[in-house]
Specification:
Layout (H helix, E strand, L loop, with lengths): L7 H27 L14 H4 L8 H13 L4 E5 L5 H13 L2 E6 L2 H14 L5 E5 L2 H4 L7 E6 L6 H8 L3 E9 L12 H6 L5 E8 L2 E8 L4
Parallel strand pairs: 1-2, 1-4, 2-3, 4-5
Antiparallel strand pairs: 5-7, 6-7
This protein binds S-adenosylmethionine.
Organism: Salinicola acroporae
GO molecular function, one term: methyltransferase activity
Keywords: Methyltransferase, S-adenosyl-L-methionine, Transferase
Length: about 220
């Protein structure tokens, strides 16, 4: 039996969206270099539309494959995503949800991005598996009914910890939590990297460099 992630309609949408994201990223990097900007950007707030509203900022294919396999192999049925953008990561999560008989609740602050994400999911044949909630995820994800099996954090990094803490009471035993861009965080007290790597009684965590970024992969053990 062919896995959902290998269906032609899904591969086609992912290929196109990954290509477009790569092209947008390299164009923007060239523009920054031209005006003398180098190094990582300071983390903007999600309300900074100039940075967020039209940018993919999406995970790469290797990261997507890892998300798919982790969600699929753990049998995750109730999947939550913080930061859906144009739906690239959402497609990987929805493919796993489809194979597992589950669903994804995503979140996105910008209406144009949510619309485009849902169009991509429709084209991939996965829209029936996904609801993307519009608005600030610290509010829109607050009434999700648990148990939640799998969480992907990829929105405003300063909100990873509050979003995850707000979901904790509804996490399933042994839920998996994946977060992107851990290389942008120092690991000092007060940031998410510190939060998930220094409480082994609550979260078993490893950091993994993959593709163009760094994931944290954590397993939840319940409140200490
Ligand atoms: C890095 S991008 C997500 C990329 C996406 N996960 C993918 O791989 O295709 C971050 C997205 O999160 C959204 N976002 C950031 N903070 C948010 C918040 N508080 N509530 C809802 N969406 C938020 C941004 O608008 C942006 O589209």
């Amino acid at each position: 039996m062919i896995s959902t992630i290998d269906q032609v309609s899904i591969r086609r949408v992912l290929q196109r969206e990954h290509d477009a994201a790569r092209h947008q990223r390299s164009t923007r990097q060239a523009e920054r270099r031209a005006v003398g900007e180098t190094g990582p950007r300071p983390g903007p707030s999600f309300r900074d539309a100039a940075y967020y509203q039209h940018s993919y900022l999406s995970i790469g294919p290797d990261q997507g494959a890892l998300l798919y396999f982790l969600a699929r192999a753990s049998g995750a049925c109730r999947i939550v995503e913080f930061g859906s953008s144009f739906g690239v990561s959402t497609i990987y999560l929805a493919a796993a949800a489809s194979d597992n008989g589950g669903h994804v609740i995503g979140s996105e602050f910008y209406a144009n991005k949510r619309e485009r994400a849902m169009a991509n999911l429709r084209e991939a044949g996965l829209d029936a598996r996904v609801e993307i909630r519009l608005g600030d995820a610290t509010e829109t994800l607050s009434d999700i009914v648990g148990p939640i099996d799998f969480v992907f954090l990829d929105g405003d990094k300063s909100l990873y910890q509050p979003v995850l803490e707000s979901l904790e009471s509804r996490l399933a035993a042994d839920a998996l939590i994946i977060a992107d861009n851990l290389d942008h965080l120092t690991g000092d007290p007060g940031d998410f990297r510190h939060f998930v790597t220094t409480q082994p009684d609550r979260y078993t965590t490893r950091l993994m460099s993959i593709g163009k970024g760094m994931f944290s992969v954590s397993q939840w053990h319940g409140k200490a």
